[in-house]
């Protein structure tokens, strides 16, 4: 255990315009292999989602909770920026063109701001799902570990089921 008494951070300005590129992959290994090549495009962000997360979100919040995603089991959300909306979109198209040519990989530039918001919402909602016990697990005292299904363990939190 440690205590941080001082930290230095470098703040950067938010990009004026961004563009989301959805990259679909057959598995986590393929997604990981793409990351070094994606970094060459200097993205603002790269986040990963897998089908377990989207399936859990659909199960808890209904099918409408997850917008349409390209076929795959893992998706990388790659956000690039630009000084204008057009330059951000052009940067996104460069990423999609370079990455999408690979076997079993698809890349799609998302141009609709509402769809972009909904895709990022998957990631935000997913962070909370990991702290909530699945629906087939009965409430237990905070911090207790219980078996929910064969080979699956869940540790409950203090405010279950709202944590």
Description:
A hairpin with a 2-residue loop joins β5 (145-149) and β6 (152-155). α2 (51-61) crosses α4. The protein contains four helices and six strands. Helix content is 34%, strand content 23%. The strands form two sheets. The chain has a four-stranded antiparallel beta sheet with strand order 2-3-1-4, sandwiched between helices. It has a two-stranded antiparallel sheet with strand order 5-6. The chain is of the alpha+beta class and 163 residues long. The model is unreliable at 145-163 (pLDDT under 50).
Draw up the topology in text.
Blueprint: E1 17-25, H1 28-39, E2 45-50, H2 51-61, E3 74-82, H3 85-99, E4 106-110, H4 113-129, E5 145-149, E6 152-155
Antiparallel strand pairs: 1-3, 1-4, 2-3, 5-6
Helix pairs in contact: 2-4
What's the gist of this structure?
34% of the residues lie in helices and 23% in strands. With 163 residues, the chain is an alpha+beta fold. The strands form 2 sheets. The chain has a 4-stranded antiparallel beta sheet with strand order 2-3-1-4, with helices on both faces. It has a two-stranded antiparallel ribbon with strand order 5-6.
Features:
34% helix; 4-stranded antiparallel β-sheet; alpha+beta; two-stranded antiparallel ribbon; globular; 163 residues; 6 strands
- Main beta sheet, described? 4 strands, antiparallel
Q: Helices and strands: which structural class?
A: alpha+beta
Low-confidence stretches: 145-163
**If helices are DSSP runs of H or I spanning 4 or more residues, what is the number of helices?**
4
* H-E order: EHEHEHEHEE
Number of strand elements: 6
User: Strand percentage, roughly?
Assistant: 15-25%
What characteristic shape results from the CA principal axes? globular
Q: Provide the helix percentage.
A: 25-40%
**CA(first)-CA(last) distance:** 24 Å
């Amino acid at each position: 255990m440690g205590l941080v008494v001082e930290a230095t951070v470098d703040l950067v300005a938010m990009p004026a315009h961004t563009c989301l590129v959805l990259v679909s992959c057959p598995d986590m290994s393929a997604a990981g292999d793409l990351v070094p090549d994606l970094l060459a495009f200097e993205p603002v962000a790269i986040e990963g989602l897998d089908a377990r997360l989207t399936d859990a979100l659909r199960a808890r919040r209904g099918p409408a909770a997850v917008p349409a995603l390209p076929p795959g089991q893992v998706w990388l959300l790659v956000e690039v920026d630009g000084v204008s909306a057009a330059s951000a979109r052009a940067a996104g198209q460069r990423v999609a063109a370079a990455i999408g040519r690979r076997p079993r990989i698809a890349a799609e530039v998302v141009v609709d701001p509402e769809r972009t918001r909904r895709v990022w919402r998957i990631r935000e909602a997913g962070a909370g799902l990991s702290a909530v016990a699945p629906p087939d697990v009965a409430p237990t005292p905070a911090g207790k570990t219980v078996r929910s299904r064969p080979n699956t363990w869940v540790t409950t939190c203090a405010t279950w089921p709202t944590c």
